[in-house]
Amino acid sequence: MSTLYSDAHPAGETIKTDAVIIGAGPCGLFTVFEMGLLDMKCHLIDILDRPGGQCAELYPEKPIYDIPAYPEISGQELTDRLMEQIAPFKPVFHLQQMVEGLEKTNEGLWRLKTDIGTVFECKVVIIAAGGGSFMPKKPPIPGIEAYEGQSVFYAVRKMDQFRDKKLAIVGGGDSALDWTLNLQPLAKSLTLIHRRDDFRAAPDSVGKMRGLVSEGQMGFHAGQVKELKGENGQLSAIVIEHADKTRSEIECDCLLPFFGLTMKLGPIANFGLNLHENLIPVDTEKFETSEPGIFAVGDINWYPGKLKLILSGFHEAALMARQAFRYIYPDAKLKFEYTTSSSSLQEKLDVTESKEQKRA
């Protein structure tokens, strides 16, 4: 991944910048690129501990098939390529923070404050928060918090982390079945647990899972995990309660519950924007909200015909940046240029002959 430019401002100091982007998923990252081409500086705020949004957090190693020019690319690869693409513009990331306040100053700027007290002043705000802040739905197992992050995981960031482990996966949807099939070849043993012998996942995935069970390559239990056993955050076994109320115990190094996510709009709902079913309505010319100078791109926005695709968010970011330019440089003339033919844009991107030769 390209260099991650972190916040270096002294505590308590107000950070002044052209634009603040709320959300560092693919659409937020590509927004940096479109803004950078027009000489606008960006700071990004994200509740996660790394850029990439859901792509990096939930399915970093799962393939995505509808990104132009990439017949197949993983969520983490896409994040890495976007980080490489925006590196010339040196965006600053403020991670593990949530914007909890937004107001207009007497000077006509937007002032944002995060939950840890970081304060920004900027001319435009771009909301690229996907479905909002998201948290995994946790199973109601007593004491599970003591194991989280050490032997209980709600997402798979690196598959190799689970190599030669005794895995238990809980859930009956696509995520549970997909990771069952992906991790089974790596695991020392793998057991899938679902409350009933009926699944919400793709039939092909269910069929493959049942085949592995019949061949003795993995286990399946219809029931619910009721108890965890272990010490100092490390699991040694789980206790399963079956439909007939009997219980059984299986050895387990790592527990992976996939119960879905809870998406919350969070403090954005209090920004004074006109919401449409918890989404932010925008126009399709500038992707501006009901508040001048506040924009929304990606899955967080709504307009007639909206498609929740990364591709759509990229298109929205390109058009949005042109209107943002008018707020940041009100007296400047906006000139349209192609990166393939503009020497000034290529200079911004540091596209030199030696660099091209190196790539070749």
Structure description:
This protein is an alpha/beta fold and 360 residues long. It has 2 domains: 5-134 and 262-355, FAD/NAD(P)-binding domain (3-Layer(bba) Sandwich), CATH 3.50.50.60; 138-259, 3-Layer(bba) Sandwich (FAD/NAD(P)-binding domain). The protein contains 8 helices and 22 strands. The protein has helices at 26-37, 53-57, 75-86, 174-183, 203-214, 310-328, 343-348, 353-359, and strands spanning 5-6, 15-16, 19-22, 42-46, 63-64, 73-74, 92-95, 99-104, 110-114, 119-122, 124-127, 133-136, 166-170, 189-194, 219-231, 234-242, 247-251, 254-257, 261-264, 280-281, 294-296, 301-302.
CATH domain topology of the largest domain = FAD/NAD(P)-binding domain
CATH architecture of the largest domain: 3-Layer(bba) Sandwich
Please identify the top-level CATH class of the largest domain: Alpha Beta
Outline type: elongated
Query: Can you count the beta strands?
Result: 22
Write down the secondary-structure element order: EEEHEHEEHEEEEEEEHEHEEEEEEEEHHH
Quaternary state of the chains: single chain
Radius of gyration: 23 Å
